[in-house]
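Hi F.,

I've been meaning to write this up properly since the lab meeting, where we talked about keeping a consistent format for the predictions we share between groups. The idea is simple: the sequence comes first, exactly as it goes in, then the structure tokens exactly as they come out, then a line or two of notes. No screenshots and no reformatting. I'm using this chain as the first example so we have something concrete to point to.
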Amino acid sequence: MPEFSAKLPDDCTTMIEVREGVDATDRELVDLLERRFGYMRAAARIKPSRDTVRDEARKASVIAAAVAEAESRGIPGDVIGDIWERLVEGSIAYELAEWDNTRV
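Output, unedited:
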């Protein structure tokens, strides 16, 4: 992952600096998501059957953990919950497609 080159939020004094920070953060998030989806590829490779891809208990646990972590950091848990719902559903869809691709 490349080094973060923008100013931290509390150090910003202009909107240009804020936008540079947001853009740099977005690039970091995509880097992290690339790694997360790599884990989905690994899961698809490892799981023995397609019906083991969707795990509702694990999904609920992952979302609850993200919400709790967000709230402990003072950011809105409901927003993080919504983002993680979409992230986990997208991850499941990706993993299913990868599972199918590795078995054809």
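Notes:
The chain has one domain: 13-103.
Residues 15-46 form the longest helix (32 residues).

If this format works for you, I'll send the rest the same way.

G.
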